[in-house]
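Response to reviewer comment R2.3. The reviewers asked that we include at least one raw input/output pair. We reproduce the pair for ATP-binding cassette subfamily B protein here without editing.
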Amino acid sequence: MYRNKKTKEKGGLSLLMEWAGKDKYYIYFAIIASLIASVMSTIPYYVFYKMIDATVKGECSVRLAVQYGAVAVISILIRHVMIPFGGILSHKGAYRTLYKVRCMVTEHMSKMPLGSLNERSSGEIKTVMNESIEKLELFLAHHLTELVLYLSGPIVIFTYLCTVNVPLALISLLPLLFIGGVMAVMFGRMSKYMERVNRTGGSLSEAIIEYINGMRLIKAYNMGTKSFKKYAGAIEETHILWGDISRATGPLYAIYVVLLECSILFIVPLGGYWFMNGSIKASVLLLFAFVGTQYLTDIRPLQEMASSLSYVMNGVAQVKNILDTTVFQGTEKFPKKHDIKLSHVGFFYEKGKAVLSNCNLHIGHGEQIAFVGESGAGKTTAVQLISRFYDVTEGEIKIGGINVKDIDYEELLKNISIVFQQSFLTSGSVFENIAMGKETASLDEVREAAKSAQIDDFIMELPEGYNTLVGSYFGRFSGGEKQRICIARAILKNAPILILDEATSSADPENQIEIDRAISNLCRGKTVIIVAHRLGIVQSCDRIAVIEHGTIERVGTWDEILQNSIYFAKAWKNYNTAREIQYISPSQSKVKMEGK
Ligand SMILES: Nc1ncnc2c1ncn2[C@@H]1O[C@H](COP(=O)(O)OP(=O)(O)OP(=O)(O)O)[C@@H](O)[C@H]1O
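Raw output as returned:
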């Protein structure tokens, strides 16, 4: 396992620029464009002052007015070209960076142990993938360039005012002394709320996901929205949070806005006094009265940016948090031999609560073995350890003599096919869903796999055949049909090791034979582990491993296990009894009783 060291050392803006890679140059050029636009915005003020000065001195002429006018118009034109130009560059840089970050996070998550993913709620992951990464767009595409625009304008104007009259220019800055303090307090208060913002955002997303996923249940039990207390609670919590934030920062914002307009309180009386005693010219007084009292208001949006900056940095931190999570990484190639050996394997999800301990088993190359045991015995856990969804906490698992921890994780996943109890289908086309098993597969290959999975005829009858979108058709696939699409995917993947975890649970009498045929086509020539409660299906396996009391209690052929395992003998008897039970409706039982 390894940690992403680079992201550990950096944070905030520098980390964001590192993620942007070469695309950061789009952002840099956007900043330069903003800077030019900002300098251009000060030129009309300069022209204004020069015109007044010339008028007061009686030197103003039409020629001079036209010249100054042209300079002002050109500067305004350049500004209005530079702003959208910068916007295009910053958006290009931002969206390319967003794409990269999303790919990085997705790839990283695919290598993360399931345990680390399980520690995070689906809501939290959705928040990171969606909102946290979107926040980066806000910053890169808008805030950075606006920051330059709003800051450099006042800086250039202040510099120019200094060339006209230093004392008045310095006086115009007096409100900044207080504004800095107010902003620091506001920023600090906002940062304190970030942990709550993340938490409530995550809970709200989770509640929404749960609400949508549970829609069938709501309808089935006529529960209505009231029953979704979690959703209502998450909304209430969000409402309370933003109320608290508004109360904590609102008054400070009001003070900030008032302070920005305060320089007039100092400039007009002092400037007037200096003008009256002849220290400054009328043009200087007018320049400071109109420009010196107003230019600081340009920085008003900085406050919004300061608050959303903590929001953005929080997004960076959340993405970094995912990227810093330990991921699996081995270097060995997948072995040619596919026997699996568990030696003294132990595992716990929560410390102190061992699920498996001292498990020893050797599954031969090409052998078909079944894992049986009571519900909760640890069968799924055992197969998840072999496919390295989790790492063992004791002992080791070897495939072809190589510890699974040393095998390149992608190679490992490529060489193990798993068919789960729940059929996972994406909203894409049926073709795409099967071709997930082999990205380069042609339609002929996909159809071949579907034929082996006994599902080709059904797909061909769909309105658009293999191009039919599963998303639009999902509700109309039966459990067995979905299952056979997943089996076709596994057939196409053709991995040498196959795990079937309750894969036949969706089988009903109508498609039982088809699923059995599909499965036997899938298993041919592979090392297979079958986890099943329906004991009928494990009868054809080479051996059976009974998992009991947190360990592999017995291993043997069907006959051996039936003879030696009390659990299995009982389970087999119960299985047969259950198959013989006939469900009789009340009316049928009445007829039967009358018949007696
Ligand atoms: N992610 C998890 N976190 C904590 N405990 C878990 C987790 N997954 C499973 N367990 C627990 O580990 C034990 C073994 O679960 P597992 O799913 O492996 O059993 P199983 O034999 O496959 O059960 P079933 O036949 O019902 O599917 C159970 O007690 C279960 O509650």
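The CA atoms of residues 374 and 548 lie 7 Å apart. The domain at 340-566 is CATH 3.40.50.300 (Rossmann fold). Further pairs are available on request from the corresponding author.
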